[in-house]
Amino acid sequence: MDFCSFKRSDLSDCNDPFTAVLSCKVVRLGLHIFEPKEPVIVTSKGIRIVAPLQKNPNEMCILNIYTKEVVKAIAHFSQVKNSILCFYTLRSCAQYIKNVLKLPDAPALLEGMTNFSAILHQARIIILQLDSIDHHTCSIIRSIWDFLDEISSSDAQRFLQRANQSDPKFVGNKGTSDTNLSTMQLQPNNNRQLLIYPPGRGGISINTIDYLCLATDQYINDIIIDFYLKWFYDRISKAERDRTFIFSALFYQTLSTFTRDINPHKHVNETDHEKNHVRVRNWTKNVNLFEKDFIIIPINENSHWFLAIICFPSLKGPITFDTDRPVELPRLPKRHRENDCGEANVCVAGDDRLCLYDSNPGSKDISPVNNSSEPIKQPSILIFDSLAVISHKRVMATLRYYLSCEYKVKLPGIPPRIFNKYNMPGHHVKVPQQNNSTDCGLYLLQYVEEFFNNPIRDYRIPIKDLANWFDTITVSRKREDIANLLQELMNEHNGCSNKILLPNIPFPTLNGQLIEPKRCDSQFEMEEVIKSPSMIATSDDQDDEARSSEDDMCRTKRLKVVSPK
User: Fold this and answer.
1) 456-465 pLDDT tens trace
2) What percent of the chain has pLDDT over 70?
3) pTM to 2 decimals?
4) Choice among 222, 440, 481, 552 that is catalytic
5) Fewer CB atoms inside 10 A, N or C side of the chain?
6) What angle do CA 112, 510, 233 make, to 5 degrees?
7) Where are the domains of the chain?
8) DSSP states along 399-412
9) CATH number of 193-259+270-325+374-494
10) Does the annotation count 341 as an active-site position?
11) Where is mean pLDDT largest: 138-152, 222-236, 495-509, 517-531?
12) Is 385 one of the annotated active-site residues of the chain?
């Protein structure tokens, strides 16, 4: 789509009472930085900027950026010096700016990141630097963007410093009289090792391409999954670490993927499940899973991440949560027991569903507890999926076969234990669901965090009260949070004298707050398509402009009243 062909009204032609004329020292349109020869005009309809082309500074072009294209605004107002205004725009607006200014396309990016454009991301950010702004102009700007976020002078300086460091011409800063400081800004197409966590042998190596998958609308890869789970594991209490084991994101794929046996005669007496177990046998070489209460397994199937947690694999049946007394759950009718399903066999009794279990003949000589309201623990496989539309009964079955083989290997001196859907029921937990097609990996990480920070208090199936375990914004800000964590760990490793800054990539949040409104860009971009001359006749364009003017007039009436000069 040719965004340059969009018919945009010149915002200087309107007689708008909410108009401010800004004499800017510097204007930054992404990485295109210039000293404007004409003032920037701000009205209730938008922002008008006269900018030189990047390749031909003598040729000027007019940019008209509509108010509805601004999704976040940041400002530091000073009546003395160093005021700034920063606007984050929609992707469609960034494309318009890029095309009008004839900005070059991004260099060839890394494999797997074809949907990411560093140039387009930069073009979404507009920064105006001014000496001072009077009270009247401040009032107009506050009225137009009622979501304006005002920051302090020190925050504004750090903001501009970060903007300077995003410039590829920025190569370093040789320090003061007593210290030599070096700062290097990495670019997205420069694939290199960023960090090994934890440091030393066996640590997870994180490269630029792994970091880039934290950008908005990108899928989180297995490296980021493993890194964050390891980092989080290191920060839970020792008691929790002692009772928890976390598998690598590649574990389940290795366990479940069929491979042709190179030496079929060697494993002639083994079942298929035992052959599968052999492939991952060394993953638990130094650990006994049956001494753990929780086994965390991140799983990726068909480019979708979800989480499985094996709970209390050493238990032979349900017990009370606090006193460890055996619990006798009502048995189901025979027709339910014969139901061949990978999930927990359940029946409905009022609003509660009760799970069937195998009784333990060798349990303590204590009267079973029959109180259905008392919290319990029981061996189970819990599935946490942010797209709960597919049954994972095959996954549950695979994990049960794995446990049976692992039990035989780890505890050879006792009779083997066969795990099945009666003594190890499976359950799809109702948890918060993703609202897009790319955040499944982030939800997986958040499920693990909440599992320890807000733990389940009753393992009676179905697990209840987790549908609102956390808010969507908690996941939305996770990309930025992980990026900040990586930068912090890199700073600790490299030291202040050799600082390496991560590539500047788009996140859905800034300082933990959503950059874009909850409505998606598609509605606005569809409006632009309708206005495109390639789609409809010129007369229709004029009609749409008239309707747009009416909408702007209605919006102007809703603006706060600004007292005249």
Assistant:
1) 999 999 998 9
2) 72
3) 0.66
4) 440
5) C
6) 70
7) 19-105+117-166, 193-259+270-325+374-494
8) HHHHHHHHHHHH-T
9) 3.30.310.130
10) no
11) 222-236
12) yes
